[in-house]
Amino acid sequence: xxxxxxxxxxxxxxxxxxxxxxxxxxxxxxxxxxxxxxxxxxxxxxxxxxxxxxxxxxxxxxxxxxxxxxxxxxxxxxxxxxxxxxxxxxxxxxxxxxxxxxxxxxxxxxxxxxxxxxxxxxxxxxxxxxxxxxxxxxxxxxxxxxxxxxxxxxxxxxxxxxxxxxxxxxxxxxxxxxxxxxxxxxxxxxxxxxxxxxxxxxxx
Length: 204
Ligand SMILES: Cc1cc2nc3c(=O)[nH]c(=O)nc-3n(C[C@H](O)[C@H](O)[C@H](O)COP(=O)(O)O)c2cc1C
Hints:
single chain, alpha/beta, Rossmann fold, 2 domains, six-stranded parallel beta sheet, 7 helices, 21% strand, elongated, binds flavin mononucleotide
């Protein structure tokens, strides 16, 4: 993600050489044999920040209230015709969450409030992501809280530091979602999906 521009110009240099490539052996990582053209195209797509018209829902939870919010959220996204991948941070490697983030035009971050802040795994994920300097993605946040809240606000602070496109306001639910909260989460997701579709047009 951070070296996309550099990679594009290096691939152009290699292409100018006009040599036939049998194998790609990077300094670190796996050695590619067989179909280097396919690998180069994938690499270029990543460097160009190509993404799907889809949403990555990335969250964590202590007692499942934030997790329950993902259900009406997934339904709202689906009803707007968007695919979504749902990642629970404590059950997935950070690299898998980053990959889903980068594959999708939109991202919804879910976190309960812990001591006025985000849950640590969510904060760690966003911190890691910031270092990768993501571009051309739209983000929103949701989460459960018990009194003053804070996680959703903190997530938006992180989005701003990264310069992501933002869908505001986020949605907070007091403890476990009520039927009314569930409808609000559903509508939040539909609103987000509409924005993602609109934003994606800039890259078609
Ligand atoms: C150790 C601990 C600290 C918490 N700190 C806060 C807090 O500072 N502000 C707040 O609004 N809620 C706080 N809560 C309440 C949780 O945010 C609330 O229980 C929420 O529903 C948890 O969501 P989850 O089920 O997704 O984990 C705290 C809960 C725990 C267990």
